[in-house]
Amino acid sequence: MVNGTNSSLLLIVLVVFISNLFMHHSALSQDYNRLREKMVEEQLINRGIISKPVLNAMRKVERHRFVPSELMREAYNDYPLPIGEGQTISQPYIVAFMTEALVLKPTDRVLEIGTGSGYQAAILAEICTEVYSIEIEEVLGQRADNLLNELGYKNIQVRIGDGYLGWPERAPFDAIIVTCSPSKIPQPLQDQLREGGRMIIPVGDTYTQELILVKKEKGKLSKQYRLPVMFVPMRSNSGKRY
Ligand code: SAH
To answer: How many angstroms is it from 86 CA to the middle of ligand 1?
Structure first.
């Protein structure tokens, strides 16, 4: 009898412990859902982002999965965060602004230069059929690729390499998004843009740049200056800034 009482007590303690664990977990993910919704309202909608596909993608993708665990609580705040190797994940507003500027269609094939955490690639993959992303830093590219696979994205291909050169085997692209900054628009990327295609790219010097929206029409490029920004530099394999 004593044994029976002990084991039912043990069972109760165990059940309470396990259900606490689950409650804790679901409370956390509810917190993140709330923070993400707040981010969309306050940082995106209030600042003029109106594209439904962009807003829905930003509502859906769990940004906290893409930042180092000690920074998860800050994932939905209004600033960029370090992701290791001296690189950063862009501020949510900048991700939304750049994605909206590309006016993506579901059938578009998109090239991203600077995979970083993989967050921007995930946002693109929620909107478009095919996403190609190039990262020069092997550790980051590998980590992003693993995470994107774990999250079930089948329409993203990550490649380790120098994005200055683009991805000629997969060109032309309907849209190109560059998330590291060169001092001028790389010729290979211009060449790999499809007729009617759009590219958004931060161009300038090391500390101040301008986001430029490039469009290719009748073989000619038009440029619109959109927003002052600060991105990490686009580097070659030898570490030199482009
Ligand atoms: N889009 C990313 C943020 C990118 S930070 C995200 O959503 O998290 C910029 C990234 O560009 C860095 O990871 C950096 O290593 C990478 N990078 C710099 N020069 C590059 C180059 N020539 N080719 C490809 N990636 C480059």
So the answer is: 10
| DSSP secondary structure letter of residue 241 | B
What is the distance in A from the centroid of ligand 1 to the CA of 232? 8
CA distance 57 to 162: 28
Q: Which of 81, 87, 117, 147 to mutate to test the pocket of ligand 1 (most atoms within 8 A of CB)?
A: 87
Residue 7 has what pLDDT?
72
Terminal-residue alpha carbon distance, the chain: 78
Is 114 within 8 Å of 80 (Cβ atoms)?
A: no
> How do residues 199-218 score in pLDDT, each as one tens digit?
999 999 988 999 999 999 99
Note the pLDDT of residue 238.
Answer: 95
CATH code of domain 44-229: 3.40.50.150
Tell me, using a 6 A CB cutoff, whether residue 189 lines ligand 1: no
**Domain boundaries defined on the chain:** 44-229
The DSSP 8-state label assigned to residue 91 in this structure reads P
pLDDT at 19 over 90: no
> Distance from CA of residue 1 to its chain's centroid?
60
Residues 6+ apart with CB under 8 A from 67: 74, 75, 81, 83, 89, 117
Q: Could you tell me if the CB of 51 is within 6 A of ligand 1?
A: no
Contact status, residue 59 vs residue 36, Cβ threshold 8 Å: yes
99 Cβ closer than 6 Å to some ligand 1 atom: no
Global confidence as pTM: 0.91
44 SS3 class: helix
**Spatial separation of the C-alpha atoms in residues 110 and 102, rounded to whole Å:** 10
- Contact predicate 215/222, CB 8 Å: yes
